[in-house]
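Issue 218. Parser rejects a valid record. Input:
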Amino acid sequence: MSLPSVVEQGVVGKCPRHIRGLGRREEEVWWAQVTEEQRRQHVEGAGQLSDEYLFHDTSSSLWSRLAVVAYGLVAYAVGVTALIAVILQTLGVCTFTGGPLGALPWPAALVINVGLVIAFALQHSIMARAWFKKRWTRLIPAAAERSTYVLVTGLFLLPMLWLWQPIESVAWTVSSPALAAVIRVVAIAGWTYLFVASYAIDHFELFGLRQVVRHFRGRPAPAIPFRERWMYRIDRHPIMTGLLIGLWATPVMRLDHLVFAASLSLYLVVGVMFEERALRRELGGVYDDYARRVGTVVPFAGRLAAATR
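Output the parser choked on:
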């Protein structure tokens, strides 16, 4: 089937696999003719869980695809650096200094810290919403959407850590060296649990690298089935569990650390509620059954999401 006959029959915008007789070369020409919006409409019309053909763009030049890969690598480096900075901060390897602002009186310090958390929460939440992604990918390559999310999150998180106001008063301290060592081991175990959980769901997909590499190779993104792997068989949100353990397991809890942990924990609970609601809408009975069998570190957020979806 030639390209003119394909166009005449009105099948541009349909999946090339559904066009009998369309060869590999003609399929590539098809992808070069349709727009990003037509690809998106096809995927949305098919009702698939992931954008199966969204990143298959053979019309992009080699240099533009290399630029997307380079962008993804930079975003990954920034995102992972920000996460490591959080870990070092909570383990006490680094301390909050206030950056160029220095240490301000505690009322001003509290206002600044809360403001930093609100700014981070708004960025992290808004950019994760489907309506934002749909509009955002009209301006950037769809393959770079996740990398952009990771990059901007890191660019919000790193300044937040830098500007976070120190409050040296101590909420609690553990005097026993043995118990303090145990608590530090628990904290490290929590962060390790978080990293392992990221690999259970595909670490490189989570941080956007797999998407940009797939875009470079001109391959479509496969539909991702719902799976229960590793700790996801016993914990619906193991990344959140690891984060909570890492934030709170410390033998010396200064007030600046306490405000940091408490504010992020509150945001985490709200985030889990929205994530649960989205998963229940997307997966329906499959996720409802999963939620009945597998618990979560914030069970009340899951119940609230089920009641309000």
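Fixed in the parser; the record now loads. The chain has one domain: 35-308.
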